[in-house]
Amino acid sequence: VPVYNVERYVKKCIESIIRQETFYSFEIIVIDDGSTDRSNNILQEYSKLNSFTLIDRENNGVSDARNIGLNYATGEYIMFVDPDDFIYPGTIETLLHAANSNNACIVECDFNYNKNRKISKSHSYYKEKEYQEKDFLCMSGYPWGKVVKRSLYDVIRFPVGYINQDTLMHFVIFRLCSKIIRVKFIGFEYRIHAKSITSSNKQKWSAMDTYFVVQWLIKQLEKHKDKIPFDQNFYRLLLMQFGHITFLRLRNFDISALASGLTIKLHKYDEIAKALTLEKNILMKQLQEMQDKLS
User: Fold this and answer.
1) Among 62, 145, 216, 293, which one is least packed by beta carbons within 10 Å?
2) What is the rounded distance in angstroms from the CA atom of residue 258 to the CA atom of residue 5?
3) pLDDT, tens only, 24-59
4) pLDDT of 156-168, one tens digit each?
5) Which pTM was predicted?
6) What's the half-sphere exposure (Cβ side, CA atoms, 13 Å) at 161?
7) Distance between CA atoms of residues 139 and 150, nearest Å
């Protein structure tokens, strides 16, 4: 559980995990990513519990926090839970039972949306079945809402300093799997609020991280060609990431600013495509400067 300034939600999150009834043993690893509110005080209440580990560190983002959790983890499977979400009774038992019964690398479940305290059930497009590699393009890429074999993260870790970590799941983790199972069980409650990553990154250039994450992944995958092939599925993922998904993440930008600056941005992206060597921070600064001029 990576934690940062979620004093309003973190207690319910931790309690929902502690109260799980299951035949499987599990450990809870919480990484406080430099919280400045009362989050750490709340977490200290649980620090004496068995199988509960609290790690305090300076703020470096959710990706690095998850990587630190992976370093400490000893279980066969990993489940990520965001600190403003919580899991329903039976979640750990249901997912681990499905994983062990089917010898699956990943088991994923459904979830409920909680937007401004209004609950709505997830509308799953996925049937309860076993998925093979040809199906992975339609799988949900968020790191939570599933159990994942810990050994899959031995190949690659979350890219530090970026959001949109579902790119890592789609491009690498899914493709390392021999079997993924989806169960028709609502296990998570996913909160969307003003300070959540989903909401806070709207109309920010950090929404462009989808580009930089792919660029980073391509460099990483060159080191692992023997495990993750550059094939037609990989190419289809690239097209989807740079087209449809980038559009979805940028559609909330001010339309007049986008319209007036589109030509400039396309030229800039063309330069990026030719070079692929400029540092992310430099590019982000250039993009921000263009946005400031247009606003």
Assistant:
1) 293
2) 32
3) 999 999 999 999 999 999 999 999 999 999 999 999
4) 888 887 776 667 7
5) 0.77
6) 7
7) 19
The pair of three-digit structure tokens given for residue 113, joined into one six-digit string: 């949306």
CA–CA separation, 260 and 252 (whole Å): 15
Residue 52's SS3 state is strand
Query: Using CA atoms, how far apart are residues 59 and 79, in angstroms rounded to an integer?
Result: 22
Q: Tokens standing for 218?
A: 């391509």
Range 81-108 average pLDDT: 96
pLDDT reported for residue 280? 54
Least confident of 99-103, 123-127, 223-227, 246-250: 123-127
Q: Which two tokens stand for residue 45?
A: 């209440």
Cα angle for residues 57, 223, 68 (degrees, 5° grid): 15
As a whole-number percent, the residues of the chain with pLDDT over 70 amount to 62
What φ, ψ does residue 5 adopt, rounded to 5°? 50, 60
The CA distance from 194 to 115, in Å, is: 10
DSSP string, 54-111: EEEE----HHHHHHHHHHH--SSEE-B--TT-EE-TTHHHHHHHHHHHHT-SEEEEEE
Residue 91 corresponds to which tokens in the numbers above? Answer: 């979640």
Structural contact between residues 290 and 266, judged by C-beta atoms closer than 8 angstroms: no
Q: What is the mean pLDDT of residues 122-140?
A: 59
